[in-house]
Amino acid sequence: MSTVTETGTGDAAQPVATGEAFHAALDGGPARPPRPSAAAASLAFTWRAMLKIKHVPEQLFDVTAFPVLMTLMFTYLFGGALAGSTAEYLDYLLPGIMAMSVVMTTMYTGVSVKTDMEKGVFDRFRTLPIWRPSVMVGYLLGDAFRYAMACVVILTVGLVLGYRPGGGAAGALAGMGLLILFAFAFSWLWTYLALLLRSEKSVMGVSMMLLFPLSFLSNILVDPATMPGWLQGFVDVNPVTRVVAAVRGLMGGEPVAGDLLWVAVACALLVGVFGTLTMRAYNRK
Amino acid sequence: MGLAIETTGLVKTFGAQRAVDGIDLAVPAGTVYGVLGPNGAGKTTTVRMLATLLRPDAGRALVLGHDVVREAAAVRDLVSLTGQYASVDEDLTGEENLVLLCRLLGHRTPAARERAAQLLEVFGLTGAARRQVKNYSGGMRRRLDIAASIVSTPELLFLDEPTTGLDPRSRNQVWDIVRAVVARGTTVVLTTQYLDEADQLADRIAVIDAGRVVAEGTPGELKSSVGAGTVAVRLRDPEQREAARAVLATALGTPVRAAADPLALTARTPPGGAAGPAARALAELSAAGITVDEFALGQPSLDEVFLALTDRKEASAA
Ligand SMILES: Nc1ncnc2c1ncn2[C@@H]1O[C@H](COP(=O)(O)OP(=O)(O)OP(=O)(O)O)[C@@H](O)[C@H]1O
Ligand SMILES: [Mg+2]
C-alpha cells in the first residue's frame, strides 16, 4: 500500500508517492555505483553542453552568421587591394579568417563558464565525487563542436566564393582539426580568467583586450613582410601567427614541420599551465 | 549512536565579517538535525563548509568521520546537497537533469534513464519531465532538486531551506519526502527559518544567530526553555484592555504586551505546559466581566525564540 500526499490543484496536483513506491525508489540507489571514470564524467558534461546548444540554439549565432560575415567582409574589403583578385587572396586569407573566427569565439567559453558558475547547479557539481576537471573539459569539448561548426561554415562560404584548398579534402580536414585542437587548448586561458575575475563583464572586457591584438597583429590579414620591423617582432612571437601558418600549410598542401611542432608544444603548454591554474582556482573557490 | 557531523570552533570570515563565528555541532547519525536561524545567520555558509564547498578559516569539521578539508573526496562520496538556490540546471529539462546526475554518479546511460524515470514518477514530475526547469514552479523545482540529491541514496543529505517560498501543500510534500529519506537511514541536516518546520521534522535543533549557536537541543527542550508559546487575546471593548492585561499577567505569571491593535493583547505562556494556565486565564477573564472575542494559543514565533534566547544570553553575561 502506498500513501499518497493529498492531490489538489496547482503544481502539487500530481501526487508525490511517499509510501512503498517511494521507499522502492530510494532502494533503487542504495549504494552509489563505482565512481565514473574521468572520461565518462567528461562525456556526461559534454552531453550537457550539447543539450544547452539544443535548448538555446541562439548561441550558435557566433559560429554561423558571424564567420560568414567575417569571410565576406574581409574577402571583398582586402581581396582586390592586397592580392589583385579575390580568388587569389582567398588562398591566403581563408585559413586566417577561419583561425580568427575560431580564436575569437573561444572568448565565449569564459563568459559562459562565468555565467554558469554563479548558478546553484555548480554547487551540486562541486559536491560530486568525480574527476574534478571533467566539468571544464565538458565545456571545452562542447565548445569544440561549436568551433568545428564555424570551420565548416567558413569552408563552405570559401568554396562558394571560389576557394580550392591545395591540400585537398584531407588537407582541409587536417587544418581544421589542428585549429580546433589549438582552440581547445587556448580556451583554458578563458576558463582560468572566468574563475579569477569577478564579473561576466570583466571576463568579456579582458578577453577582448587580449584577443584583438592577438588576431590583428598577426599574419592573418596581411603578410608580415609589409610591416615595420618592431611590429614584425611581435607578430613573430604571437601564437596566432604560428597557428595560422600551420593551418595554412596543411590546407594549402605544404605543411611545415616546424609550425606543426610549434603548435603541438603551444597546446601542451597552454593546457599544462592554464589547465593547472584553472583547476587550482576551481578547487579553491 | 555515532555522530554524522562533529564540528569544533568552525569559523568563516568574508572580509571583516565573521559569517560563521565559532560553531560547534554534534549531529547524531540517522536523525534530522535542524539548523534554525534568521537571514544572514550563517546557515548557508555553515552548510557549504560541511559540504566541502567552502574552506573553513579556522576550526575543524568531521563529516561521517572524514575531515572536510583533508578528506574532501571521501566526504563527497557520502553526501548530497540541495542548495538554497536551485541546484539544478535551468536550461535543461527535469529528465535531462536527473539523467545527467545519474551518469555523473556512475550509472550507464540505459540505467540512468530508468532511474531518472523512477524518480520523476515518485516525485510527481512525470508530466513535466520534458519541460525546461526554468518553466517549473518553485515546488516542482524543489522536488526535482531533492530527487537529484537522492539519485544514489546518500549517507548524509544537506537541505538548505528546502521549503522557503513553497505553498503549504508543496511544503507538506517536501516534509513527507524528508521523513521517508530519514526512515531509510540517511542523516538529514536541514536549515530553516521556520520554527514549526524544525519542530515537525527535526530530532534536534541548533539555533544560530550572527554566526554562533545560541541554543541547542530537542524541540521540546528549546520550547520549554523559551516558554511554551503565546496566548493571543482579542477583546470586544478597547476600554477593557488595561483590566484584561492585569488579569492575564496574574493568571499566566508572564509579562503581557499590548499590540498596536487596540483590541489585542499577547503574552508568553509560562514554561511547562500552556493549556492549564491558559484555561485559567480565560476563566478569570470572563469572571472579571471582560468580553473576549478570540482567544488563541500559538507557538512562540521565531522572533520570540530569538528575543528570549538573546535576552537570556545578555542576562547571564551581565
Ligand atoms: N560569498 C560571500 N561573500 C561575502 N559575504 C558573504 C558571502 N556569503 C555569505 N556572506 C555573508 O555572510 C553572512 C551569512 O550568510 P549566510 O548566507 O550563511 O546566511 P543564511 O543564514 O544562509 O541566510 P539566509 O537565511 O538569508 O539564507 C551574511 O551576512 C552574508 O552577507
Ligand atoms: Mg542561506
UniProtKB/TrEMBL annotation, chain A:
Its main location: membrane. It is found in: Cell membrane; Membrane. It comes from the Bacteria. The keyword Phosphoprotein does not apply. GO terms for molecular function: ABC-type transporter activity. Keywords: Antibiotic resistance, Cell membrane, Membrane, Transmembrane, Transmembrane helix, Transport. The chain crosses the membrane at residues 60-83, 89-111, 144-163, 169-190, 202-222, 260-282. One of its GO terms (biological process) is response to antibiotic. GO terms for cellular component: ATP-binding cassette (ABC) transporter complex. It is a multi-pass membrane protein. Coiled coil: none annotated. Residues 58-285 form the ABC transmembrane type-2 domain. Belongs to the ABC-2 integral membrane protein family. This is Transport permease protein.
TrEMBL record, chain B:
The keyword Transport applies. PANTHER family: ABC TRANSPORTER ATP-BINDING PROTEIN (PTHR42711), DOXORUBICIN RESISTANCE ATP-BINDING PROTEIN DRRA (PTHR42711:SF19). GO terms for biological process: daunorubicin transport; doxorubicin transport; response to antibiotic. GO terms for molecular function: ABC-type xenobiotic transporter activity; ATP binding; ATP hydrolysis activity. Belongs to the ABC transporter superfamily. Drug exporter-1 (DrugE1) (TC 3.A.1.105) family. It comes from Streptomyces harbinensis. It is a peripheral membrane protein. It is an enzyme of class 7 (translocase). This is ABC-type xenobiotic transporter. GO terms for cellular component: plasma membrane. NCBIfam families: drrA. InterPro entries: AAA+_ATPase, ABC_transporter-like_ATP-bd, ABC_transporter-like_CS, ABC_transporter_ATP-binding, DrrA, P-loop_NTPase. Pfam families: ABC_tran. PROSITE patterns: ABC_TRANSPORTER_1, ABC_TRANSPORTER_2. Keywords: Antibiotic resistance, ATP-binding, Cell membrane, Membrane, Nucleotide-binding, Translocase, Transport. It is found in: Cell membrane. Its EC number is 7.6.2.2.
